[in-house]
Design brief:
The complex is a heterodimer. Chain A contains no helices and 15 strands. Chain A is mostly beta strands. Chain A has one domain. The model of chain A has no long low-confidence stretch (mean pLDDT 95). By secondary structure, chain B is mainly beta. The chains are: A mainly beta, B mainly beta. The interface between A and B is large, with 36 and 36 residues. Strand 2 of chain A pairs antiparallel with strand 2 of chain B.
């Protein structure tokens, strides 16, 4: 279980910094930095620049992403922003607008 | 459009600020919240709040329903339900709740504001109010 969970009814306006993982089911506006995995669940809204070890998106994300390992945009995801990661997958049914930088 | 269930949804799960996490900003909304890490900023939730041992909350105003504190709170607390300071808690600020319990070993510095029934021998003053209100309370 994730160490930090922003529940479905909760809104955080500001900056979240953690050296562990984060699951967002609610709303985050501002900045989100984790050392480990970040999960943006279906129904969640994130308007923030996101950094972390890896990122899974099934909800809505507006902001730039910088991740050391991989980014997975799952079906139903809606992402607007630039993504920088070593590996990126975009599933059928995911919406994405922005640049991908895999550091080739 | 078909609903996707590729990620386990966390409906009904509480919100938690983990031990290694720091939030700077405002947290609000519906649902219970457990703080194990650090929060700097206002906190207003319609749900129960737990400030765990080792956690710290620095806030102008904290609003919640039932509140349990085992960590550190700097700031005022306005709870619509009962408040409990367990052993090891450290609170600087004014407390308001439907009831306030301060356990042995909890440190509290501030004003205590809660409504309770005064025993008859204390209630027989000029004002026949059955509501009590404490002034500045300090317990260290």
């Amino acid at each position: 279980m994730a160490s930090t969970v922003i529940g479905a009814g909760i809104t955080v306006e500001g900056e979240i910094t953690t050296d562990e993982d984060v699951v967002v089911a609610g709303t985050v506006r501002g900045k989100l930095s984790a050392k480990e995995g970040v999960t943006i669940e279906h129904g969640a809204t994130v308007e923030a620049d996101v950094s972390g070890g890896s990122l899974v998106v099934a909800g809505a994300l507006t902001g730039n992403v910088t991740v050391t390992e991989r980014v997975d945009l799952q079906q139903g995801a809606r992402v607007i922003g630039n993504v920088k990661a070593a590996r990126v997958t975009i599933a059928d049914g995911a919406q994405f607008k922005g640049n991908v930088d895999m550091d080739v | 459009m078909a609903q996707t269930r590729t990620v386990t949804r966390s409906e009904g799960r509480e919100a938690r600020i983990g031990r290694g996490a720091r939030v700077r900003g405002r947290i609000h909304g519906d649902g219970d919240l457990v703080v194990e890490g650090h929060v700097e900023g206002d906190l207003a939730i319609r749900g129960d709040l737990t400030i765990a041992e080792g956690a710290s909350v620095t806030s102008k105003v904290v609003e919640a329903q039932t509140v349990t504190i085992a960590g550190t709170l700097e700031g005022d607390l306005a709870a619509s339900g009962p408040v409990r300071l367990v052993a090891g808690a450290r609170v600087r600020g004014n407390l308001r709740g439907s009831a306030v319990a301060i356990d042995d070993g909890a440190r509290f510095s501030g004003r205590l504001d809660c409504e309770f029934e005064l025993p008859p021998e204390l209630g027989g003053t000029s004002r026949n109010e059955s509501r009590g209100r404490t002034g500045a309370a300090t317990r260290r």
